[in-house]
Amino acid sequence: MLDVSRVQKELADCNKDKAISGVSIDLHGGDGDLSHLAGTISGPVGTPYEGGTFRIDVRLPSGYPFEPPKMQFVTKVWHPNISSQNGAICLDILKDQWSPALTLKTALLSLQALLSAPEPDDPQDAVVAQQYLRDYPMFVATARYWTETFAKRASVGIEEKVQKLVEMGFPEALVRSTLDSVNGDENMALEKLCSG
Amino acid sequence: MAEEEDYASSSDMEEEDMSGFYLSDREEDVLEETVLQGLESQCEEDCHWSVSSVITKESLLAAQKEDLRKVMELLALSEQHARTLLIYYRWDVERIFELLEQKGKERLFSEAGVTIIDKNRATDLLNSSQSVNCNICFEDVSQNAVTEMDCGHSYCNDCWTEHFIVKINDGQSRRIRCMAPKCNAVCDEAIVRTLVSARHPDIADRFDRFLLESYIEDNNKVKWCPSIPHCGNAIRVEGDICCEVECTCGIQFCFSCLSEAHSPCSCQMWELWTKKCQDESETVNWMTVNTKPCPKCHKPVEKNGGCNLVACICGQAFCWLCGGATGRDHTWSNIAGHSCGRFKEDIAKRTERARRDLYRYMHYHNRYKAHTDSLNQESNLKESIQEKISVSESKQSKIKDYSWVTNGLYRLFRSRRVLSYSYPFAFYMFGDELFKDEMTPQERDLKQNLFEDQQQQLEANVEKLSMFLEKEFQTFSDDEVMHTMSHVINLSDVVDKLCKQMYQCIENELLYPLQRATHNIAPYKSKGLERATELSVCWDSDQSLRSMKNNNEGSCARWDLTVNVNGRHSGSRFPGSSSSDESGCSSSTRKRPRRDVAGGAAPFDLNMPPEVIDNGRY
């Protein structure tokens, strides 16, 4: 059975310093299901991913933390170890190197580290890895373009979304924090606001 | 006996006459000469040797004790650490000692996940009343509900248990690592056993079984017998693991690839061959090139002449060039109302090639099949011959010993097998599939001639042997029986020699000069396949399991258990393991030449004329 109390503690612990760490994690849906979470990581400074916010779909198997969490990028990202098609991640600690002493936060931090330090020799996406090795400037340009296109859209026009939700009758402060927590996804924010 | 004297007196004869092509109408003294040569060549043993033993469920623990003991003694380890080390290095004790030299103890241990507890550290344990925070479940637990592994990482017992269960269910019993990130240490098997059995005794039992079976699963020298339904045995081979063995359940198999014994075919050749025979890919190949499916009934249709309008037996006419259905109204150059952009490839060439390949395959397959069938038929001979023997023995005659018949029969079976497998071997040896780039056509022709000469000789003599063995000797006069006997004995010997020669030719003339050939061929054994003998142990499996469970850390003294290894347990070939000589386990049988062992195992000595054996000259 899923260790509920540990997951709850992890959530609290992870979000305590999210401004500093750049990673956060929340429930995916409003139904209180602890086995389906949504993580975010901010693109590391000095990389083509800088300024982007990347959403990660996190599913906890029933054996968690003795089995590794299943993580997948929801935000499209151009990276040798992340599938450009479906966001699947190639990272050892999510597979055989997982240890029950690792946490969701450390896993997300590892993903963030992976963004700064790709390992093209052990690729998930062969096309990206090829480009990384053969035409690095092109790789950087593509990765940056993808970051601009897919990882920043949420923040564009955030004011419009706030206004829209405020007009529906929710208090502005709550709207802003909710939008923030779901990374600017309007529909998810609405869902969350409605479920209270 | 007169014959015996002949053997003795002619001992100075040379072995040069190796034509081996035995003709039944030669003079008698020539026959005897051949017999003699057989005796002499008997003395030379193959450089390949392997000894095999059967490991049953009951003897599994005993079988690995020797290896464990060696590692424990030489590295001063507890049994469980020795086991961890052996599992990691695939039960290759020699390799462990080699690596010990190269890497040193520390690296050897740490790579395998063995951590030796630092006794000093253990003293600064906290007061047991104090509670600590477990780093996995984030709960505060009392100190006595926490377990520390040898590597120094401690977590609460519940978390450990959960971790062990997940790993065991995941099939990773043999290497359950510590829970700390990047910690390579393998968990103490006693702790795993204790914690898991408190909650799930069945899983703990499984854990024990997995550990025990590691000796088979993670060991190049031990393999499960491939019998179906499974006989429950495993076979251990010492020496050259490229060999063919026979399990006590009766099945004979190739130890390398676990399929039926197939030498002189290499494993790769045999795999290709069985696959080829199975899907008859040559036939399919020929059909794709030479036939087209009828557009109506889809039967393959071959064009046997005429123009491009082809009529199927179902009545449908179609265009041979594009395969499309047409009407029957046509001329030599076109079909009414039909036109397909005709793109002609060199169909003729392709057809020619496919046909040649098919005929070639059929040639080898037919002969392979013929000998396999003969072998099957001849196995029926076994019973009828037994009857004939008992009839003969009850007769009033001066010939009392009929073991030459059974010996001859076993020789026939043995050589028949060699003969039948020599055809798939030749198919690949001289075909394009494996060695095309390794030989020039001239070289290949040369080799092929050489090999085929030997094969033909063998074949002729095997058939002749078969013929003599099928004779109704129980109705013969004494003279006729003597005549048949000498033929059978001589032919047996010639056939054995020819088999040996063929294997030598394969090794030295055919395969050896090839650069990239990695075809290991199980050596020929005159006496037939190595029969694995059972390791006999004086305890039952329950006991052995119990002893394993009771085995606490540091208790190296479990070795007083009596293990009778039947004189086969030869972990003795250890350069550095002189200290193990005192074990008394198998020291009396050590350094025994292999022939004794093998001779004891085989019920028939296939090479010896019975008189010789009877007179104790062997």
UniProtKB/TrEMBL annotation, chain A:
Residues 2-152 form the UBC core domain. Pfam families: UBA, UQ_con. The active site is at residue 90. The keyword NADP does not apply. PROSITE patterns: UBA, UBC_1, UBC_2. Belongs to the ubiquitin-conjugating enzyme family. This is E2 ubiquitin-conjugating enzyme.
TrEMBL record, chain B:
The keyword Repeat applies. The keyword Transmembrane helix does not apply. Its EC number is 2.3.2.31. Residues 572-588 have a biased composition (Low complexity). It catalyses: [E2 ubiquitin-conjugating enzyme]-S-ubiquitinyl-L-cysteine + [acceptor protein]-L-lysine = [E2 ubiquitin-conjugating enzyme]-L-cysteine + [acceptor protein]-N(6)-ubiquitinyl-L-lysine. It holds the Pfam family Ariadne. Belongs to the RBR family. Ariadne subfamily. Might act as an E3 ubiquitin-protein ligase, or as part of E3 complex, which accepts ubiquitin from specific E2 ubiquitin-conjugating enzymes and then transfers it to substrates. This is RBR-type E3 ubiquitin transferase. It comes from Dioscorea zingiberensis.
